[in-house]
Amino acid sequence: MSKSPTVKEIKKELTELGVEFDDKLNKDDLLELLEDNTSEEDGEELSETYSEQEEPKQYVVIHDFKDLKDNDTIYIKDDIYPRRADAVLSEGRVQELMSGENKIGKPLIKEQD
Hints:
Distance between the termini: 18 Å
Radius of gyration: 17 Å
Order of helices and strands: HHHEEEEHE
InterPro entries: SAP_dom_sf (IPR036361)
Protein name: HeH/LEM domain-containing protein
Number of strands: 5
Number of helices: 4
Region (Disordered): 35-54
Strand content: 5-15%
Largest sheet: 3 strands, antiparallel
């Protein structure tokens, strides 16, 4: 199963191609713009790039918390983290939430099985 590109990845590709776009466009519109601006050969190359990448890790909340670094989003035990599927997580942030090195002092998320 190939991975669908993130909004950030699509915007990066469009920028590299020199295509101007509105930052407020949704993912589907950005993807359509990218497809319209890549030749079939480039599109195949792009598709191969995304299919070779591994699926993003999924996390589940193991302790209720308010995410102070995500507009104070409240997460309840067993919620999926992050709530927004297009959210970009830094490895440092994931480690902070998976360890006790946060304001609550205990792990808040774990990798989903």
